[in-house]
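pinned: reference chain
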Amino acid sequence: MEQTLKNNKRIILLDVMRAWAVFMMIQGHTIDALLSKSYYNSDSLLFSIWQINRGLTAPIFLFGSGFAYVIATFRKMDEGRLPKAVVFKRLRWIGVLFLIGSLMHLPAGTLADMFTLQAERWHRFFHVDVLRLMAVTLLGMFALFMLVRTRTRLFSTALGIGLFFLLVAPVVYTIDWAAHTPLWFAAWMTTATGSWFPVFPFSGFMFLGAAAAALYMRWQEEGRTARLPLYYGIAGAVLLLAFHVPREILEWSITFKGGSSSIWLSFSRLGWVLLLWSMIGALLQRTQRIPEVIPVAGQHTLFIYVSHIVALYGSAWMPGLRQTFGKTLEIEPVLIIIAILLTGTTLAAYWMHTQKLQKTMVYRYLPYAAMVVLATVLLFA
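pinned: its structure tokens
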């Protein structure tokens, strides 16, 4: 099936970009988890491109998530206020997101086992993953909504906060947070404790996505959304010229350069994100129809993300492919596994989408059934 791009209330570009990000996550995680280390060659152009793409995946996903949250929330506003039912749903969703992220990294399969765990297992549990980062950042965005209430103030405030997370990251990374604060708090500050996505700088991409959404809605009122790819392309090109070229080609260096804390790296990634949005947006403007499964996947990225992570890395209740094979596979079987994960998770998401549209009993009660099963396992397994 295909989906017409015109006269659609959803922002198809947003759905396509989120689908792109989660598909790139699947291939990136699969290669990282299973491909033999003999293929890791820093002198290889193909490997370098793969590494750059991996670095862009999370910023694309986080930028799109911040964008989507603002669009969805403003559509629910009534005379500058959010109805109480919407407030409850937003807070509930944030809690569910944090809970899912925590359960995916639960260090034991039952509550009884948690009392006998070694400290190292709990340390790994505190590592911040992308879902818990999103939950905490969305909570901050929600508080921002309650304060600013207008698109203009949201744009300026979210832009300032987003830039703050990126610009202050180098200073934050000079502090030994684990020596001065509890480990669970230190894990939210930097990658030093092993966290994958601490708030510095990664929350910045979500707030910048929120600012972009506020600007988009203004352009929508002015009838300028057709020029969105051009504006994004210009902004992305400026950032790349200002941060990527000096860092990679001219080999300039500044204090605090390195890793996730690097201002050069963060703004280079932001430039590539905007440039990619620009290119995909321009392509969509020239396309009448796209396969329906692509925007559907973009609407169900949470399901696809969780499914492929559990399949690859396992959980407290089952081993994953990483535990079964390790980093031992050749390129051919890894590509086959990527194809299976892409196809399987996308088709499952499409099935869920059809159940949602049809408002079936399965879709309505499946989450509650899953919670009952999980509670039973935690208490009695």
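why pinned: The chain has a mean pLDDT of 86. The chain has 17 helices and two strands.
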